[in-house]
Amino acid sequence: MKRSDSLFQPDRRIAFFRGFLKRPAEVGSLIPSSRFLERRIVDLAHATSAKAIVELGPGTGGTTRALLRSMPLDAVLLTIEINPRFHNIISAIRDSRLIAHKGCAGDLVDIVSGYGIDPVDAVVSGIPFSIIKPEFGRSIIQSISDLLTQDGRFVAYQFRNRVNSLGREVLGPSRVQLELLNIPPVRVYSWTKNGHLRLD
Ligand SMILES: C[S@@+](CC[C@H](N)C(=O)[O-])C[C@H]1O[C@@H](n2cnc3c(N)ncnc32)[C@H](O)[C@@H]1O
């Protein structure tokens, strides 16, 4: 983690906690992702070689910054955040590779095509699939599948496993990892579009 990021951390934590108090179900967590979780997400998304990544529910931007630190200089990162306060925090990140969009993950296909991003190498998601209606969650995952390249990746970090059953219906079996160094510990589910489990 860069020094500037660690200095920024207390503000982000307070903003995140306030966001949780206002919309607990939508935010789904009391505190932002740990840097250990961020690192795991970056690795599973193969961010170092990605040309285009979409992040659903970036919150206060810890994962967003971690992705940007790893992505190539000519890459694009599109964030889609429903919470206006969180979106404003993301919009303040100064990085020409970042496109911050305020909106709903349900409109993913239209949003991505509106920015002319094609193809998408990875989608990273923190949105709480366990509290949204299953049909809605399934349609978001179907959109993710439609957008991804053949060996594109979908990475979802979640406290409950609803995303696993929905993702299996669309993308086949997931790879599941448990990140203990996060409060609370969180599961990270990942898929490749072509359905073959990759262990690299
Ligand atoms: C667990 S938090 C993300 C935490 C983030 N990694 C961080 O460290 O700040 C989940 C985020 O998903 C957002 N969200 C929930 N439903 C959404 C939707 N339908 N579309 C876009 N964002 C959504 C919430 O506002 C929240 O910012």
What are the SSEs and their pairings?
Blueprint: H1 3-22, H2 24-27, H3 35-44, E1 52-56, H4 62-70, E2 76-81, H5 84-91, E3 98-102, H6 108-114, E4 120-125, H7 134-147, E5 148-158, H8 162-171, E6 175-179, E7 186-192
Parallel strand pairs: 1-2, 1-4, 2-3, 4-5
Antiparallel strand pairs: 5-7, 6-7
This protein binds S-adenosylmethionine.
S-adenosylmethionine (SAM) binds at residues 16, 26-29, 32-33, 56-60, 62-63, 80-83, 86, 104-106, 126-127.
Q: What key phrases describe this protein's structure?
A:
single chain, 200 residues, Rossmann fold, 7 strands, binds S-adenosylmethionine
Give a written overview of the molecule:
The two termini are 24 Å apart. The N terminus is likely disordered. Strand 1, helix 4 and strand 2 form a beta-alpha-beta unit. 41% of the residues lie in helices and 22% in strands. The longest helix has 20 residues. The chain has a single domain, classed as 3-Layer(aba) Sandwich (Rossmann fold), CATH 3.40.50.150. By secondary structure, the chain is an alpha/beta fold. Strands 3-2-1-4-5-7-6 form a 7-stranded mixed beta sheet, with helices on both faces. The protein binds S-adenosylmethionine. The site of S-adenosylmethionine (SAM) has 24 residues, from helix 2, helix 4 and strand 2.
